[in-house]
Design a protein that fits this description.
Two copies of one chain form a homodimer.
Chain A (H helix, E strand, L loop, with lengths): L14 H11 L11 H13 L9 E8 L14 H12 L3 H9 L2 E8 L10 E3 L17 H20 L4 E7 L3 H13 L3 H4 L8 H18 L6 H8 L2 H16 L3 E3 L2 H13 L7 E3 L8 H7 L16 H19 L3 H4 L6
Helix pairs in contact in A: 1-2, 2-13, 4-13, 5-10, 6-8, 6-9, 6-11, 10-11, 11-12
């Protein structure tokens, strides 16, 4: 399968929309800068959407699910069966992201890229299984080149569906037991950082569990001899189908001109890989929430990213990004709806 | 006017609702603790509302507006006329809090406790002017005992209206040129802290302006000889009508059993005064946003308060609290709507 699309150019930002939005922020009835980050968000969205009145009403959430061979190394607090069980829970509306999508009136689709067990057909779940989980990267490459290309392409296809449906914003989520281990391994390789600094408790390991997880990653990285200059090779050797799906989605979103709200640790690692593959992707990324997973801050710093929220969440599924949607919506509503000093007859600064 | 009501008991929290909510959080399909602060918010609201399913659908926002005699000392970047002009802007829907209230489908009322100029009758603006602004506290007490009692009572009346309308949550906002000076002076007196550590730029003073503001406060505090053990005397000597209104509202909300979402610097100073007058008020307060106004962090620390959001806002009007409403709503939706492990057939932690 071809992956030449990955390095195709990203959409350009509209600088005149940015300038106009910046000027408007200075005229609204508030002290200059008094809306803090909300001003920057509105200005960025105006530039991304080439719009005087940016908006975030139609939100598309794609949750990519897959299993990980490395789960066999005992790196997760939960059994592997949970990945498929949670796919059912997403579909039936019981998971956190299901509840949030309903509250936000967002489109939610789940893309099964490779649970170990087959999941029966379910509404809003796309069966795009590449394999019964990745291979155990403690022993060999997590996937083949063809599998990697297929996962990246699945992400792109999700974005094309979102674009087709007129989405203003794309959120990617993930589910996969052991995927903080894969994400930590990718981040270690791309940032040339020691596993002890990036591995964290994930769904709830104790300190011995975290130390074991770091050792598993360290040994795998020693085995695969990855270089940070080849992010696709890193993804293939120690990644996961759902992480590659997110990576492909972010690249495609930037190429299609669809703003992205990135979720937590795993999504941010996928974003880091995307930016390493195609640097202009960075322009199209906003960040929703700083995870309690300790490695997140290092990956955010590498992307010079400041998330909107810090609520101590560490759930994945796209939930941290979904929490921030309303902040973006209010930033747009304020930008578009507030009166200017002239319109309101309010005196300006002395 | 009598103020004996201020020290009447606050409503009790429902501990069995708290325990039930805490137990439910442990059964929902997520790793324990993975929703971070959202879990604590849902549990607190369950205890405050004595409800298995807490909710924050009906939000009442009361914005108290008044002028300050101390504006004559040149402590604000904006002219005094702005207070009345902004009252009109609130009413016409052009101010930040107007836009946000509409987006949140919240009730918004503006209570004019004392603009210098008379404002013509406007929809959603209550004319409860106590005087044409407070007296200049650089020269004498800001208000008389009767005026203070009237302002506190106006806050209580706003809460009784909210309660009457079935509100689930009360937000108080404020508008008043020079009111960060009054709020800083109150905080200095109640926390026995030097003005240089609490005075900030407000609507946009430069460093010389901030230093001048700190000197004005320092001289006023030296003149009035206030003690932290008499918060009502502090409010009367260096406070403002709108700050006293907020203080009265918070006390009444706690007495009425109505949860409060506190806004930024000025509102938090009013909350500090309320808690000093009636300590159990603290139980009923949630905090929306950490202001960019530098003194806010000290006042929050004195109340052991961690706001939900940090967005660099510094606007007042109730806007920081309004930004956090949706976070509370999603915390409730997740608590009420997620499936348990048993309901969803999802395996628990190994």
């Amino acid at each position: 399968m071809e992956s030449n699309w990955l390095t195709q150019p990203c959409a350009a930002l509209n600088e005149s929309s940015r300038d106009a939005a910046l000027a408007r922020q200075g005229q609204l009835t508030k002290p200059p800068g008094a809306l803090g980050q909300l001003e920057a968000i509105a200005v960025q969205l105006a530039a991304l959407q080439a719009a005087a009145q940016p908006q975030v009403e139609r939100v598309h959430i794609s949750v990519f699910a897959a299993d990980h061979g490395v789960a066999a190394e005992g790196v997760s607090a939960f059994p592997q069966a949970v990945t498929a069980e949670m796919v059912r829970n997403f579909a039936r509306g019981g998971a956190a992201i299901s509840v949030m999508a309903k509250q936000l009136n967002a489109t939610l689709e789940v893309i099964n890229l490779g649970t170990v067990s087959v999941v029966e057909p379910l509404a809003n779940v796309r069966d795009e299984r590449i394999n019964a989980g990745t291979a155990n990267f403690a022993q060999g490459p997590a996937m083949t080149e063809a599998q990697l290309a297929q996962a990246l392409q699945a992400g792109r296809a999700a974005v094309l569906r979102a674009k087709q449906n007129g989405a203003h914003l794309f959120i990617g989520g993930e589910m996969g037991i052991a995927n903080t281990t894969a994400a930590s391994a990718i981040a270690c390789a791309l940032l040339q950082t020691a596993p002890a600094l990036l591995a964290g408790p994930g769904t709830g390991l104790d300190s011995n569990g975290v130390a074991h997880k770091a050792r598993v990653i360290e040994q795998a990285l020693a085995k695969h001899q990855l270089t940070q200059s080849d992010p696709l090779s890193v993804l293939r050797h120690v990644g996961g189908f759902e992480i590659a799906g997110l990576c492909g989605a972010y690249i495609a979103a930037a190429q299609q001109g669809l703003p992205v709200l990135v979720d937590g640790f795993i999504s941010t690692v996928a974003a880091l890989a995307a930016v390493r593959i195609n640097p202009d992707v960075r322009n199209w990324l906003l960040f929703g929430h700083t995870s309690a997973e300790p490695g997140h801050q290092r990956v955010l710093a590498a992307l010079d990213a400041q998330p909107v929220l810090q609520l101590g969440m560490r759930l994945g599924e796209g939930s941290g990004a979904a929490m921030a949607v309303h902040i973006l919506q209010l930033a747009c509503a304020l930008h578009n709806g507030m009166a200017t000093f002239a319109e309101a007859g309010v005196s300006e600064k002395d």
